[in-house]
Amino acid sequence: MSVEYQGRTYQVIDAHIHAFPDKIAEGAVARLQGISGITPCTNGTVGNTLEKLAATGVDRGFFLNIATSPRQQTSVNNSAAELNRVYPERVSAFGSVHFRAEDSLVELERIKALGLPGIKLHPDYQGFSIDDPELDPIYGKCAELKLPIVFHAGWDFYSPDRIHASPKAARRVLDRFPGLTIVLAHFGGMKQWDEVERWLIGRDVWLDTAMCATYGDPVQMRRMILSHDPQRILLGSDCPWEDPASSIRFILSLGLSESLTRSILAQNAQRFLGLA
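Above: the chain sequence. Below: its structure as tokens.
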């Protein structure tokens, strides 16, 4: 699979995808559609999501899972491990822990043993501020295990009146845990890109482009991309909430160099996963 653009062929890895077990997918997507007002581009099942990625030319996807309660940890991580086993060439499924779970640090060790590429934490859905010291044991353990953390960052439909992961707060975490690999989704902070430019651009942090095609200003996004570490930028869509085709077209339309475009569309994700 690949994408054709102006006579060139590009490999693509989407580093920000959501899918759900078949038995809950319909309800989960309907609930989130009601909150966001966005019409999804898939029905939320793994099968339909993989069909969408194939039709779009996406070779592999990071499937980001979230333990929204302490009791979900085990099942979420077992499901991620099974996805990676069944679709080893197409899926890189991430695990999750909940900071209220008494065994969260032990579960992180199990996640590492399962071979999951990292974890996803969503401050809004899980109910914490990114720089709350209560999360420090989890951050420290992930740094020790060399287990990356992907965070939702910035504004979210789920709690629109409170920013749980502002760029400034994320910067505090970066400063406290310099050995921790952090990916901040939505290019460092959904709808907070002025603050991203102030606090995060040029720092040792990975950024993905999820929802930037929908909400980002192309001029600002291009400026931030050119000012950040070119090896720390990942294509992301947030599928099913942004069509991967739109996410890809957005990057291709920015007039970036050929080498930077290829890095963002696939090569950086390959290095992140150790596939390069």
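Residues 258-273 form the longest helix (16 residues).
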